[in-house]
Design goal:
Elements lengths: L3 E4 L4 H14 L4 E5 L10 E3 L5 H10 L4 E4 L5 H6 L1 H20 L5 E3 L2 E2 L23 H20 L3 E2 L1 E3 L1 E3 L12 H10 L4 E3 L7 E5 H13 L11 E2 L3 E3 L1 H11 L5 E3 L4 H7 L7 H7 L7 H13 L1
Parallel strand pairs: 1-2, 1-4, 2-3, 4-5, 5-7, 6-8, 8-12, 9-11, 10-14
Antiparallel strand pairs: 11-13
Helix pairs in contact: 4-5, 6-8, 6-11, 8-11
The structure holds 2-amino-3-ketobutyric acid.
2-amino-3-ketobutyric acid (AKB) binds next to loops.
Length: 309
Amino acid sequence: MKKILVIGSNGQLGTELFQVLSTKFGSKNVIASDISAYSQNNGLFEQLDACDAQGLAAIVQRHKIQHVYHLAAILSAKGEQNPVQSWDLNMKTLLNVLELGRKGMVERIFWPSSIAVFGPDTPKEQTDQHAVTNPNTVYGISKLAGEKWCQYYFDKFGVDVRSVRYPGLVGHKAMPGGGTTDYAIEIFHKAVLNQSYDCFLGPESSMPMMYMDDAIRATLLLMEAPSNELKIRTSYNLSGLSFTPAALAAEIQIHYPNFQVNYKPDFRQAIADSWPSTIDDQMARMDWHWQQSFDLPKMTLEMLKGLQR
Ligand code: AKB
């Protein structure tokens, strides 16, 4: 059994990924870590500021960690409010983890990139793996630089680091924190409370999204793929579904006919406008046999059922 460390385990993705990894590999083999002193999960936990390289290395040595999932980051919307802090945290933590790989202290690393690597010059539809990027948010710039660092550590030092460009992730077990795609989770929380939702994007902002179960399945598929079959060592395009706030509201109204959305776009609108609408992920489909399974009706049903429970 592999020993696994999840960095950022209290986050939206970390909470769910930790649970799935613990079930799959055994709770004694998966260690959660977060900057917070308290764990959202049951199981082994270490408090860790991933900017602290020595603290990170000590945890890796103590638990004989082989695989690291490094999920800690400041996301797009929060990043625009704290540009320098976001750059420092996003880059320093990644380099600390890549250094573990270079020193032979861990065998394999997962680090998420994002559709935020794309920008206003990127073609909007079926955005190709190698499309022009030119991001205009600090989060996007840090993800693009991070992708290049992953490629560099793979080429120069043979570090087995793997990555996908997540779209907006939609799940019901944890709240998102500071992203532009967060509306797609918040809206469900309001619907099940029979409240209206003030959406911070306009009704026609189409963005790539993915239900959390698909995101976790994609992550595990990539981490289990034979190294020699992976042709992309920056980060793989990954596609689930694309929808607008209006389309999502209409789908929720099938279940909650009185549900109302008020559109009040703020600074996040410009970020959403700079990102693609749909993604071409054929490289992921070819190299590690990726296929999404959630469409908008299925995702909506799962979200509503999960939140009602
Ligand atoms: C965000 O909105 O910042 C994130 C992302 C797309 O990476 N969810």
